[in-house]
């Protein structure tokens, strides 16, 4: 699973309307982060399997979950600021909601989680080109300390699920072949995350010009995809087709054919 392998700065951030280092009132999170966190919370509330299944099962509960917010972004995971905010918001939404559902009192984890969130956002705002540096170490240290606090509480409440920090999971991205029937259709895709982000930011998510995260399957190939996407096909005669695809259910190199309605 790739958190972020590289950083694309300057022109790309401006083109996509992203300004993670924008100044904001003291003590307040940047508006962009608030929007990203809002989308993550909506995914959780809707029962998105990638974010809710983490709580499923029995036995120990691993705070070091096997998913990352960047997996919702497709090739947007290389966007400066966006990838950092996505990974932070994904973690915070999961920890806040799952620890509450697991029955651990808010007074044990509320302030520490909020403090971690604020500190990580501060690093992104201050050093947007290098915020991921040593992030894994900071996160692991925080989780070990939080797990120790929760485990100390569990000793007086043995019915609670044990909290651990183990990790050791991974996920991959796909490259797919996209075909239309009949041929000649233009195919545009957008991750559901960015579709919802445009909605939260009061931009029409179906406007492929205004909502700038739509991208075309160039030469019939769509690379770096994972999770759920929305698509739009336009044929030369004006016919269109819209729908949703879950790439988690497909195999690398598979051909997806989108047929005219």
Structure commentary:
The two termini are 36 Å apart. Strand 7 and strand 8 (240-246) form a beta hairpin. The protein has 261 residues and is of the alpha/beta class. It has seven helices and nine strands; from the N terminus they run H-H-H-E-H-H-H-E-E-E-H-E-E-E-E-E. 36% of the residues lie in helices and 17% in strands. The chain has two domains: 11-164, no CATH class; 174-259, Immunoglobulin-like (Sandwich), CATH 2.60.40. It has helices at 11-15, 31-45, 49-52, 82-101, 106-126, 135-154, 192-200, and strands spanning 61-62, 163-164, 174-181, 186-191, 215-216, 221-225, 228-234, 240-246, 255-259. The strands form three sheets. It has a four-stranded antiparallel sheet with strand order 5-4-7-8. It is elongated, with a radius of gyration of 20 Å.
Number of domains: 2
Q: Which structural class do you get from the secondary structure elements?
A: alpha/beta
The largest sheet has its strands arranged as: 5-4-7-8
Inertia-based shape? elongated
Provide a brief overview of the structure.
The chain has about 260 residues and is an alpha/beta fold. The chain has 7 helices and 9 strands, in the order αααβαααβββαβββββ.
Task: Give the helix/strand layout.
Layout: H1 11-15, H2 31-45, H3 49-52, E1 61-62, H4 82-101, H5 106-126, H6 135-154, E2 163-164, E3 174-181, E4 186-191, H7 192-200, E5 215-216, E6 221-225, E7 228-234, E8 240-246, E9 255-259
Parallel strand pairs: 1-2, 3-9
Antiparallel strand pairs: 3-6, 4-5, 4-7, 7-8
Helix pairs in contact: 2-4, 2-7, 4-5, 5-6
């Amino acid at each position: 699973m790739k958190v972020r392998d590289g950083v694309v700065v300057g022109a790309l951030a401006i083109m996509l309307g992203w300004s993670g280092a924008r100044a904001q009132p003291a003590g307040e999170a940047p508006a962009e982060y608030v929007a990203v966190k809002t989308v993550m919370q909506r995914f959780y509330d809707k029962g998105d399997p990638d974010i809710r299944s983490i709580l499923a099962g029995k036995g120990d509960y691993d705070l070091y979950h096997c998913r990352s917010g960047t997996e919702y972004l497709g090739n947007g995971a290389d966007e400066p600021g966006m990838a950092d905010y996505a990974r932070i918001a994904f973690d915070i939404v999961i920890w806040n909601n799952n620890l509450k559902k697991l029955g651990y009192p808010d007074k044990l984890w509320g302030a520490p989680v909020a403090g971690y969130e604020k500190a990580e956002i501060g690093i992104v705002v201050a050093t947007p080109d290098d915020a991921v540096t040593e992030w894994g170490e900071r996160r692991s240290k925080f989780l070990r300390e939080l797990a120790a606090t929760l485990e100390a509480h569990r000793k007086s409440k043995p019915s609670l699920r044990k909290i651990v920090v183990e990790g050791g999971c991974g996920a991959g991205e796909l490259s797919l072949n996209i075909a239309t029937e009949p041929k000649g259709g233009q195919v545009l895709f957008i991750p559901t995350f960015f579709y919802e982000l445009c909605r939260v930011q009061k931009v029409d998510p179906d406007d492929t010009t205004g909502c700038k995260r739509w991208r075309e399957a160039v030469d019939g190939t769509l690379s770096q995809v994972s999770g759920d996407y929305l698509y739009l096909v336009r044929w030369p005669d004006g016919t269109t087709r819209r729908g949703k695809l879950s790439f988690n259910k497909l195999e690398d190199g598979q051909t997806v054919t989108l047929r005219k309605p």
